[in-house]
Amino acid sequence: MSIQPPPVAAEAPYAIDVADLGVQYDLRFNRKTTVRQSIANLVTRKPPPRFWALRHVDLRLVRGESLAVIGPNGAGKSTLLQVLAGIMRPTEGRVDVRGKISGLLGLGAAFDAELSGIENILLGGAFLGVEDARIRELLPSIVDFADLGQFIDAPIKTYSSGMRARLGFSIATSVDPDILLLDEVLATGDASFREKSKARVIELVRSAKAVVLVTHDMAWVKEYCNRAILLEKGRLVSEGSPADVVEMHLEHAAAAAAAREAAKLAGGLDPRVEDDRRRERRERRRRRRMEMVED
User: Fold this and answer.
1) For a Cys-Cys bond, which of 126, 160, 195, 231 suits 71, CB 3.0-4.6 Å?
2) How many C-beta atoms lie closer than 10 Å to residue 120's C-beta?
3) Three-class SS of residue 50?
4) What is the DSSP letter of 29?
């Protein structure tokens, strides 16, 4: 059974207003840049290489909106959320955020791996600026919503990614935020918790809160958001109804995939072999992450 977001009133006050936003990275601090290259650039006074993660982005989010931010990897989606959260300062442009922000910008955000789930709830409340007495008052409801059983008393380092997402989402949405920022977290965890999470997001929207969600789940975008934007190479290329924006995104993604396959064939590479290699690399990275958690 789907839960449709409510329509947005035209006169609703805005929660976020972004004008001509630009974020530029200095690639001198990229880990691929060697010390020799850095010294050579200083001696020759060569200007450091720079990269625009976002450029000329205009956006307004009103209360009661659930906004999906979609696009290919590297489009600037997570950078946009970090700017809205106040974690990162824009290089140019203006960002006006009105209201209390709560966010979950990654599965490990604000967690201490050595502390238990209960202790991390108290820590998360402190990070969000919630008074200790208030977060302790909310503790039973947070524990109940996360539904982690006996693991709530175990160290976070023993949690799976899905369990971390459950706990992080429960904390972020329990503090009654005016603006909720979520970065690709609802795709993690079991189906029942995903449905419960979606219902809570809609509940926030119905109470005139504002939600910004970065996701690759196009079904979620069309069913549970009332507006969407498409970012590509740091630019806002489309804005409007979720169905229309998703359709454009899928068309662009299919065209890009076809172009990559054609380039591989032209270079004498077998796309199937390359796909197998990518899967092997992803599996090796997954195993390394699991080993780090176990250690």
Assistant:
1) 231
2) 24
3) strand
4) G
Q: Is 106 left (phi over 0), alpha (psi -120 to 50) or beta?
A: left
Q: Is the alpha carbon torsion for 35, 40, 43, 49 positive or negative?
A: negative
Question: In the Cβ-directed half-sphere of 270, how many Cα atoms lie within 13 Å?
Answer: 4
Summary mean pLDDT of the chain: 83
Two tokens, residue 101: 């922000």
- Distance separating alpha carbons of residues 279 and 265, to the nearest angstrom: 19
Answer yes or no: are the C-beta atoms of 102 and 175 closer than 8 Å. yes
Burial letters for 130-145: b for 16+ Cβ neighbours within 10 Å, e otherwise?
beeeebeebeeebbeb
DSSP characters for 150-178? GGGGSBGGG--HHHHHHHHHHHHHHS--S
Of the candidates 83, 180, 176, the residue with the CA atom closest to the CA atom of residue 131: 176
CA gap 195, 272 in Å, rounded: 35
Among the residue ranges 1-10, 15-24, 183-192, the one predicted with the least confidence is 1-10
Q: Does domain 14-242 have CATH number 3.40.50.300?
A: yes
* Higher per-residue confidence, 203 vs 285: 203
Q: What is the pLDDT of residues 74-103, one digit of tens each?
A: 899 999 999 998 889 999 999 999 988 887
User: Could you tell me if 71 and 41 are in contact, meaning their C-beta atoms sit under 8 angstroms apart?
Assistant: no
- How distant, in Å, are the alpha carbons of 24, 72, 132, 216, 247 from that of 67? 24, 17, 31, 13, 16
> Using an 8 Å Cβ cutoff, are 97 and 86 in contact?
yes
